[in-house]
Amino acid sequence: MALGLTKITNTAIESSESVAASSLEWASDTGGTVINAGAGEWFQVVNIQVSVTFDASATGDAEVHVRKSTDDGTTEDTPEEGTYLGTIECSAGNTVTRTFPVYDFDYLDVGVKNLDSSYALTYSAKYDGYKITGMS
Q: What is the pLDDT at residue 113?
């Protein structure tokens, strides 16, 4: 089998997912899409773009987390250990977008943690990047 490189663009992970105050929601738990390579495939790099819309009265930030695996998703990162990717600072009543690079995996689940103790937020996420194909 020949190795190949596939470019992936503008692929949805979540669209308009609500996250309650002081909680963490994973794409895999809310009907979103995990990034999952097929047999003989591997993601070299993806850029995850997360857009968070904060309530007009919000004061708490949002954290972006990822659980990834290098063995076909059978042993993904434990949610409480090493999943933090970055913070999106609160801008009450506005939508804030940040992009985060993630390297070398075959399975990835994205989560957003709402640090506001009173108000829900809404987020959407998508990705683009490169996948290596044709590996045995």
A: 97
pLDDT at 69: 84
State which amino acid sits at residue 30. T
Exposed/middle/buried for residue 95 (C-beta within 10 Å: 0-12, 13-18, 19+): middle
Tell me which residues of the chain have a pLDDT lower than 50.
none
CA distances from 20 to 31, 46, 51, 63, 94 (A): 16, 27, 16, 13, 17
Place of tokens 């399975």: 107
Rounded-to-integer distance, Cα 1 and Cα 29, Å: 35
Closest CA to 121 of 80, 68, 64: 64
C-alpha closest to that of 103 among 78, 75, 127, 74: 127
Residue 96: how many CB atoms within 10 A of its CB?
17
Beta partners for residue 110, in sequence order: 66
Output phi, psi for 90, to 5 deg.
-65, 135
Task: Determine the number of helices (DSSP H) and then strands (DSSP E) in the chain.
Answer: 0, 9
Backbone Cα Rg of the chain: 15
Question: Given this model, what pLDDT does residue 71 score?
Answer: 79
Q: Residue 123 is encoded by which pair of tokens?
A: 């987020």
